[in-house]
Amino acid sequence: MIGECLAQHRTFGVVRALEQGLAEVGCTAEIVTVVKEYPDGRLDLVTEGRKRFELLAVNQERSFLQAEVLMIDDEPGAPPPEDTSRAIQLHSELLAIAGAKQDLSAADPTVLSFYLAGSLPLDLDFKQKLLALRSETERLSLLITYFETIIPNLQRAAHARQKSGGNGHVH
Fold it and tell me: CB-based contacts of 14: which residues, under 8 Å, 6+ apart?
């Protein structure tokens, strides 16, 4: 499948496998670069998500799944600027706890939520819920709530690690 995508400059679909079947919403992915080719034919790839789709029917005639899909777009409307600012601020706080940074200057503001969520190792159920929402306002609101919930726990864990790294006393 990847060989065909590379040869024909085509995207492919990514759908989360669930315990019982597949998720209803997936995303097309474009191969940005082939990082490494292995002698056995495997590849390390860098891909980028493009467009979301709803899975209508699955075809198993080939060695990989094919599907009939319906491309989906967001509902019109932009999130309030204060939500955008808050989500970016909380995202920065999360990255700071992890000792990381991310340049958001190239992020498409109409789908900022996907850039913020995509850079973090978040719960897969949560990421799937974000993918299925058709409103950037709703996605950012959900992200803000999620970030506000996990940041205090991560800060406590980071503080505990820092404290245990020494002699157990706070200086």
Answer: 26, 27, 28, 29, 49
Q: What is the pLDDT of residue 168?
A: 52
Q: Which residue has the tokens 């040869």?
A: 7
Q: At what angle do helices 136-164 and 124-132 cross, to 10 degrees?
A: 160
Give Cα separations from 49 to 15, 20, 29, 46, 78 (angstroms): 12, 24, 4, 10, 21
Q: What is the pLDDT of residue 169?
A: 54
pLDDT, position 103: 85
Amino acid at 54: E
CA-based radius of gyration for the chain: 19
Low-confidence residues in the chain, pLDDT < 70: 165-171
Nearest alpha-carbon partner for 44 in 14, 2, 16, 11: 2
Residue 138 backbone dihedrals phi, psi, to 5 degrees? -65, -40
Beta bridge partners of 48: 30
What is the token pair recorded at 67? 């599907």
135-157 pLDDT tens trace: 999 999 999 999 999 999 888 88
